[in-house]
Model the fold of this input.
Amino acid sequence: MLTFTSRWCVVCLTPAAAALALAGAMAQQPVPTAPAAAPAVPPTWAQGRKPEQESLNLAPHPPGITALAPEEIPLDRIKLPEGFRIAVWASGLPNARSMTFGRNGTLFVGTRFVGSVYAVVDKGTAREVKTLLKGLHRPNGLAFKNGALYVAEVSRILRYDSIESRLDSPPEPVVVFDALPKDEAHGWKFMTLGPDGWLYFQIGSPGNILIPPVTHAQIARVDPERGVLETVVSGVRNSVGMDFHPVTRELWFTNNGRDWMGEDVPNDTLHRVTHKGMNFGFPFCHQGDLLDDEFGKGRSCQEFDAPALKLGPHVAPLGMRFYTGRQFPAEYRNNIFIAEHGSWNRTRKQGFNVSRVVLDGDGRPVKYEPFATGFLQAETFWGRPVDVQVAPDGALLVSDDVAGAIYRISYGK
Amino acid sequence: MQRGPILRVFVAARLAVLAAAVIQGHPAMGADAAAGKAKSEACAACHGPDGNSTNPLIPSLAGQTPLYIYYQLVQFREQRRVNELMSPFAAKLTDADMKDIAAYYSGQKAAEPALPADDPRYEAGKAVVAGNHCGSCHLPTLTGQQQIPRIAGLQYDYLVKQLRGFKTGERPDIDGSMASAAQPLSDKDITDVSLYLAGLR
Done:
C-alpha cells in the first residue's frame, strides 16, 4: 500500500521513505542508499505514541461491520432540545457512513469497511434499503451531479450515470480520476459537490504525525468533466466532512487533530476557507495556536491560517452540513450540524454527539453546543454518528456506522 | 534462548487476565458460550472440538479473541473473505450464532504448542516481530485485542499462507493495516516470523 501513482504527483515520497529521510536528517547521517526493503513503520494509529503511553491501552475502536435490528437500537437514550424527536429512518446498513441525496430523493450511503454503497428509497411509511454496489475499495465519499452518482474510493473517483433509474441494475462505472494516492492510512475520502461543479475531498495525512508528502494533508478538488486535480488548501491532517455555506458559498470543513500529544490537546477543529491556498498548519501547528511537540520546533503558528472553532480534543468531527431546511425553528437556519464520531485516544471518552454551531452575520461561530447526545452511556458507546444530511422535508438525517442505521431528527408535531 | 517455565507461567497468567478483560469489555458479549458450543458442532470437524486444530492449514480458535472470530465469520458470510470450506458454513449463521460460537471458542484453552528445538530461525522471527511493530496492534504478548487476532501459537503453515496472502492482497483485511504491514516482509521474514509465532503460547 506504500505506493503512489504519479500522474500528477511530482514529488512523490512514500511515508516510509519520508520517515527514513527525516530520521536520517535528524541524525545528521546520510540516508542509506539501497535498503533491501522499505523499513517497517508502526501502524498509523500508533505513530507518535510515547513509550509511557503504551500502558494506557488506547487503540482505535473496532469498526462497525454489522447492523443492529431496529428494535435493538436504544434511541430512547438520545437526548435532544425541546420539541425535537428522533426515530430510526432506515436500518440494516452495515457500516453506514457518508450520505448524499439523488435528485429524485434516493439517499445514497457509502461505507469505509465493508466495500458497499447502499441506496435507500423512501416508500412513505418505510424505507427500502438496496445494496447498490459491492466490492469497492473503501467507498466512503459520495456526491450526486447531473443524475450521476460519484463514488470516491481510496485512489479513484467513479461515476454511475442515470443511477436513480437503475437502482436494481447499476451500470458499469466510468472512471473519472484514478491517480490519487493509494495509502490506506487516512485514505478513505469524504466528498462533496461544490457550487462550481467540482468534486471536493480530502487527501489525508498518511500517518498520525509526520511530514506529509506534498500530495497529502490537503483538501483537493477534481473537475469531473476534465479530470483536472487541484489543491484547495493544505496543512489539513484529515478532514472527513465539508460543506459550502449556503449564502457565502465558502467551503467549511472539519478536521481531525493528531493523537498521542495529550488527553486534552490538540483540539479537533472547524475551518472556514476564505480563499484558495490557505495552509492550516499540519504537522507544525495544531488548532491554530499549539506548536507540535516534535515538528513545531523552530516554527510559529503565525505562519499558518487558524481554524474558525476548536471543537474539543479527540472528538472526531466527521460529517458536517449547514442546516438549509425550514422544518426546524428559525434560529437553526444556516447553523452547522457536526457528527462527532467520538474519541479513542483519550482515557475518558468525548464526542459521540451531533453538535450544533451557530454563526453570526459575519460567519463567526458564536455558539457551539451538543444537539443530540446519548450515544455514549457511562464510557460505553452503542452508536457513533458519522454524517448528517438535511432531508428534503427539512428533517436532519444522521448516519451511524456502529448500529448500521440512519436516524431522522424532526421538529414539531 | 529458550523461555523458562517462570516466564511461560507469567505469560499465561497475563493472557488470562487480558482475555477476561476483552470478553467483559465488548458489547458483542451478551453472547452465550454454552449455546455456542452446541452451534459449533460443524466447526469441530476441522477446527477441533475444543478449538485446537490438528490440520496445519486450519487455524486453532481456542483462546482467540471473540471479536476476531465474530468479525471473520461476518466477513466469510458476506463474501468479503472467501474460502471454499468456510464460506458455506458461515452463510447459514446469524450474527447471534456467530457471537455465541466466538464466545465458546475464545473461552477454550489453547493447546501447548510444539516448541522448536534450537531452531536458528526462532531469533530471526523474534526480530521480525520487533522490527515490524507487530505488538502495536496484536499487543506485546501477541495475544490480540478486540478484533485484532491472537497470533501466538497459531499453526505455522496457516500463518505463512495468511502473511503471503496479506502481502499480495489475496487475503483481504478489514482496515488495510495488515496489507500495509506485510509489504516490507521478505518471504524469509514471513517463514521466520511464522515459526516464531507458532512456538509461542
